[in-house]
Amino acid sequence: MKTNTYVKVDLDAIRDNLTAIRKQAGVPVMAVVKADAYGHGAVPVARQVEPLCSFFGVSSMEEALELRNAGIRLPILILGHTPASAFSQAIPLGIRPAIFSYADALALSQEAQKQNVTAPFHFALDTGMSRIGVQADEEGLALCREIAQLPNLRAEGLFSHFATADCDDLTFAREQGEKFDWFDRELKKMGIQVEIRHLDNSAGIVNFSSHYEMVRAGIVMYGMAPSSEVDCTALGLRPALSWHSYVSHVKSLEPGRRIGYGGTFVTTRQTRVATVPAGYADGYRRSLSNGFYVLIRGKKAPILGKICMDQMMVDVTDIPGVQVDDPVVLVGRDGNLEITMEEIGERAGSFHYEFVCGISRRVPRIYFQKGRQQEQVHYLLVNG
Known about the structure:
Blueprint: E1 6-10, H1 11-25, E2 29-32, H2 34-38, H3 42-49, E3 55-58, H4 61-69, E4 76-78, H5 87-90, E5 95-99, H6 102-115, E6 119-126, E7 134-135, H7 138-148, E8 153-159, H8 171-189, E9 196-198, H9 202-207, E10 215-217, E11 241-246, E12 249-253, E13 258-259, E14 265-266, E15 271-276, E16 293-296, E17 299-304, E18 312-315, E19 327-334, E20 337-339, H10 341-347, H11 352-357, E21 365-369, E22 372-377
Parallel strand pairs: 1-21, 2-3, 2-10, 3-4, 4-5, 5-6, 6-7, 6-8, 8-9
Antiparallel strand pairs: 1-11, 11-19, 12-15, 13-14, 15-18, 16-17, 17-18, 19-20, 21-22
Helix pairs in contact: 1-3
C-alpha cells in the first residue's frame, strides 16, 4: 500500500557504524535503542545489532518490554527511573534498573527475596549532569554502602553521563571523569566492586581514550555526530535514515496568489506549485515554513507558506517536468544534493536528536539490507 510519507532505514549502515564504534572503543558496547531507536525502530534495529553488542539501553520499562516481547535476549538497562511497581516483571526478564535511592533499592531487594533470586542493578551516579543519580560525595558513598548491604541484590554496574563531552571545551567532562574515578575507588575501599563501569556516551567514545568495561553508543550508531563540535571522521559514519514522500498535486498560480494558512507567502510570478502529503503531524516541523526546501528531481524545491498538519506546498517553477507521483526527499540524498538530519534540525530551530526522534509513528519505517527491502513497520496497522 502506498503511503503519503515513509522512512527508509539502512540496516547495513547501522551495523557498519556499530562495527566502527566497537573498533574505536575496544570494549563491549551497549546499543542505546531508547525512543524507538532514535526514530529508527527499536525492534528491527535491536535484532540487527544484537550479535554485535553486550547490552541494550532503554529509557523505560515499556521500552524494555517491547524488546523482550520481540525475542531480544541480551541484558537490558533502563537508563532512567524504573518505578518499583515494575520490579516484579523486570527481575525475571533480566531487565536491570538504574538505582539511586534507598527506597527503590529496598523495593528491588524485597521483590528479589520474594522471587528467591539475586537481582542485578546499576548504580546511577551524578557527576555533573544534575539529572538523576547518587551524588558523587561522601553522602552518596554512604547511600551506596547501605544499598549494597541489602539482601538479594548485585551491584553489577556503575554509570554516569557526560554533560559536555560534545563540546569543544572538554574541561568539565574531564572533571566528571575524575569524580567518576574517585567514587569508584572509594566504593572499592568499602568492598563494593562493580563488574561494569560505563561513562562514555557517543561523544565520549570519540573524544576520550579510556572507556572502562563498556561504552554506550547512541546517536553515532545511527550515523550522526553528537554535535558539530565532535569530529567523527575517523569512524566513517553513514546516516542510516532517509525520509521520503511524493508529489500529490501540481498547479500553476498567477502572481498575487496567497499560499497556505495566513497567506504568508504571495506569488510574485507565474508559479508552478507542487503539493507534498507530509506535514507537522508527521514530525516535519512547521518552523521550516517559508525558509527551507525539499528535493525533487535532484533540485531544491523551496517550501511556500506555512507547513500544514498533513501537507506542504513547494515551488517547482524552476524544476522542469515535475508531475504527480514524482519522488520527494525530505531528508537524504537526491542526485548530487543532500539534506542531512543535522541541517534540517538546525534550520528548524531544534537539533538533530529531537528532529529524528520526533518523526511520527504514523510514518512507516521500511528496512533495507544489501540494497533490498527486508521489512516494513506500519505502527498504525494492527496486522502491518
